[in-house]
Amino acid sequence: MNAFIDFIMGPMVWIAFLIFILGLIFKLVIIIKDVNDRESYIYSYLTLKHSLRSIFAWLIPFFPQSTKQSPVFYSISYIFHLLLFIVPIFLMSHIVLVNEAFQVSWVALDDGLADILTLVVIIALVFFAIRRYTVPEVKYLTSYKDYILILIIALPFITGFLAYHQFFLYKAMVIAHVISGEIMLILIPFSRFSHMIVAPLTRAYMGSEFGNVRHAKDW
Amino acid sequence: MEENKSFDWSTDLKEVPVREWEDRFTWVEEPYVSPDGETIASIVNVEEGVFTVCENGETWDKEYDKAWNLRPLPDGKFAACVSSDEEWTLSISGNEWENWFDFIWNLQVNQDGSSLSLAVQKDMEYGMAVNDKPWDQMYENINEMVLSDTGSSAAVVQVTSMVQADIEVFKNGIFSCAVNGKAIDKKFLNIWDISFDSAGKNVAYGVRLDRTKYSIAVNDTAWDKQFQSVWKPLFISGDESVIAPVKEGGKWMLYKDGQPFWNKRYNQIWHLVVSQKTGNIAAIASDKFGKWTIAENDVTWNMAADQMISDLVYSKDGSTLVAVLKDKGFWTLAVNQKKWNLGADKVFTPCVSSDGNIVSVVIERQGQYFLVVNNIVIPNGYDFMATPVISPDNTKILQKAVKDGVYQRLILSMDKIL
Amino acid sequence: MSNDMEIKDKPSVVKEKNTDEAVEAGLAKLTPERIKNTINQVLQKETGPRFKAYVETCMHCGLCAEACLYFLSNDRDPSYSPAGKVKQTIWEMLDKKGEVSIEFLRRAVHIAHTECNVCKRCSMYCPFGIDIAYLMLMVRRICHKLEITPLYIQDTVNSHSATMNQMWVKEDEWIDTLQWQEEDAREEFEDLRIPLDKEGADIMYSVIAPEPKFQAGLLYQAATIMHAAGISWTMPSSPGWDNSNMAMFTGDNEISGRIARAFYETAARLKVKKIVMGECGHAFRSTYDVGNRWIGWAMPPFEVVHALEFYHELLTSGRITIAEKFKKTVTLHDPCNVSRGRGLHDMAREVTNMLCESFIDMTPNREHNFCCGAGGGVINCGPPYKGERMINNKFKAEQLKATGAEVLIAPCHNCHSGLEDIVHHYDLNMEVKFLGDIIYETMEKKIYKPGD
Q1: Is this complex scored with an ipTM above 0.90?
Q2: Domain residue spans in chain C?
Q3: 20 to 30 Å CA-CA from C432: which of A142, A152, A171, C120?
Q4: Three-point CA angle C330, C336, C337, nearest 5°
């Protein structure tokens, strides 16, 4: 058992990160190769200018029409996506671990603030789940898989939160936190979470078709 | 181009004033020039509802209610579709055909001018007429008319009636290819792009067999093999074989008699031409999406046009291949892989000497017409120009141009140009 | 849209989904083998990473729903939302690896052909820019290969394939109509011409087949405008004159490409500088970025100018002058294919303001305008589906009504016909006009001379 825990807490962390990063790179390479082989016409229309124009337009809060029409969802979504990166990267206990391994460190969030932000992430995920269940046009598209995706993201945050507060089963919670975090990382390249890199590409293509060919905005 | 020998190559300049026509008539339509350059002609409106043709200032003897589609003929005469009392016929320099129709269009002239064909409609029946002789059999509809150099005519005809929006009847095939008026006993969903062999006896054409299957048919028999799409076929090797671009597995290839012929797979190949002299085959092709080039015997030119290649022609001896193309917003020519730099708004039909040494073409830049010879643009701009003619000995060029209301038939010496 | 604007006394949700004899006859002939093979062939062989990215990254967020006229017109019924339509078609085809039922296909044809205008508005509401219209066209491509395309639009494609025009216009009818309009227009300008096959003219003018078939007056108007503006122009007497392309809306890409080739090779034969087209949206889409691409022209080989842009040029250059501005209040419908499809919406407003005294804009507008509900081949599916179409267009009717304008300008044929249906069905008491109608009405009937 201890050997298993050591593996989970040690090498498996690195393996998870490797799978996450290499998986995304692999995904990107496959897409580019596929485009070259099968849909090279895309390059006739793709421009950096219009790609970036569209991506940035969609990064500005409440700039695209769609974001104006669904302000609550987009507000929560913007905050959620930001915190999804900010909280784990700037968490003191994560930085300490990195420092132990690589002797590098960076500025950390105040633990109390990180705690609140973790709650915000969890609340956002609860909001997404409730929205899935209550908004008809979303419910219509939802299957159990969509809830699993929410759960996969929620687990590392919930377990982290519980572990930090040491409410109960501290050690088990830490292990659960690490395992769930690893599962999340590993699944990103192989699930719809890969929108992390694919969405900018689809956005770039649509942005180029609109900007470069259609001379119109796509936001 | 043997007929060019009889042209007057010794008189440097002949002029016909044309501006005064505008005073004589209510309006003067666009001019056409005879191959020998001796005559310039336009359809003119004499008064309300009265039309005739003015050739070198002389009007035809006859006047008509309507006239359109004026074209010069190889013998120096002109033909136009004309109408009197709501009936139509062809008038050749004022001499009408005996047959009159309810409508006529699509005048075609074979190379030596011995045959003239029209698509005709009479009492809502459709057919063709060649040299004043209408087909014996008429049909419900006609498309894709062709005239062979030997004077044979062919077209796609509708042989089965179809009420509006009856897609079931359509699906069973309602079209046949009719040759000299006689429909081949084989119906297809669609027929396009009829080609005659050089004897004018056999035909090859593209067909669609059902919603998604295409093939090539020769006379009444389709190739065994079916494709995703096909373009116009061509007879080669003394009419022995038929070649055609076909689409297979998402790419275009050249097939011969139902078998793969060229090895390369292209994004596009169409517009086949064959040199009768050398047997070389060329086509407009695209290797890379959006880039156009020429494939000659399955080898692509080291040249690309980013917009269009619209025409392709071999010199008579097969030594020179000329493409009309548009690249980066301008039209130009490419001759044996070398792109000229004409920067033209329009490029007209090129004229290539028999030995391929001289290529001449009329271009338009900013509203002015210029003559180009072997990539040299002669600086004099004109208001209008017709296709030039190169003398049989390659020493002279016949330029046909209008400037300041005067038509000039000008013989240019090649020495002075090159 | 406030409640008092809501249109009363009309059914508010589509209850009956129609079908037609071509769809039913096609379905009756299908075998499970053919269904499976066809679906898998199209989805595996004819798509690529783009398709994969679209289906694998959609997060099922439902934000596209807000964009869709059908969703909004049917009391926010989620089965009309863009992603909802993908779920009912593509997702299930993929899930079941092509082993879908006849009942499923009946619904799929209906969705793809009559409940989506492929207007691409939803792509502007999807944070990832997923091209849902492309996915719907993929469904239509499958329907085409299974031969279950709705009757009337299939007949149109049949006509395209045989005649290179969409309305079975015979070659002599086309020329005869032009000559007849030319003669009539000589009442106005005695030396007016519609020059046929004039090689070397600057402009080839092209129209869609309904013009010679039913609306020959539009050819008359266009000829008058061309003549007055002193344009060097021509029209082809041969096939290739029709710029419409319904094959691109049934997924018959092979015929669609053939049409585009005939069109551009006709322009090449006539050696023109550019092509001007009448007020038609889908024809612009076909020649500008669909038909041309399928046969390998990345961009159109000739500059293609939509009438709207051409009028703008004529009015700003002074080639056409306006005698007296149009008096009635007007509003403007932005056709998807030239606003969202080509960014001509601001030009459309400038032209409208140059012509009309009182212009009231519609909201939303420009790229965000709602489709007329007729485009994308929907109206071309014909009478069996008209009742549904009217209900599906309820939201559009409310948008039109809110303007309070007397005249509705629609610079697109499909929009024009669709909006006329809406105006009539919902008693909106608006007159639908083309820009050309208003130019013809208000222009000075004199011939432009440079320096005037």
Answers
A1: yes
A2: 18-149, 163-315, 321-442
A3: C120
A4: 120
Searching chain B, which residue's CA lies closest to the CA of residue A41?
B289
Which chain B residue has the Cα nearest residue C265?
B310
Residues A77, A74: Cα–Cα separation, whole Å: 5
Residue of B nearest to A45 (CA): B290
Name the amino acid, one letter, at B234. L
Name the residue ranges covered by the structural domains of chain A. Answer: 44-213
Q: Assess A41–C contact: CB distance below 8 Å, yes or no.
A: yes
- Is the Cβ of B308 closer than 8 Å to some Cβ of chain C? yes
Residues of C within 8 A of A53 (CB-CB) are none
* Residue C3 pLDDT level (bands cut at 50, 70, 90): very low
CATH 3.40.50 fits C321-442, yes or no: yes
In Å, how far from its chain's centre is CA B295?
21
* CATH code for the structural domain at C18-149: 1.10.1060
Say if residue C2's pLDDT is above 70: no
State pTM to two decimals: 0.96
The residue among C45, C52, C61, C289 with the most chain A CBs within 10 A of its CB, best to mutate, is C61
B182-183 vs B251-256, strand pairing mode = unpaired
Question: CB within 8 A of C335, min separation 6: which ones?
Answer: C281, C341, C372, C375, C410, C411, C412, C414, C415
Q: pLDDT of B9-25, one tens digit each?
A: 999 999 999 999 999 99
DSSP reduced 3-state for B130: strand
Q: Which chains lie within 8 Å of chain C at 3 or more CB pairs, if any?
A: A, B
pLDDT of residue C4: 46
- Domain A44-213 - what CATH class? mainly alpha
Contact: C252, B211; criterion CB under 8 Å:
yes
pLDDT tens by residue, B98-155: 999 999 999 999 999 999 999 999 999 999 999 999 999 999 999 999 999 999 999 9
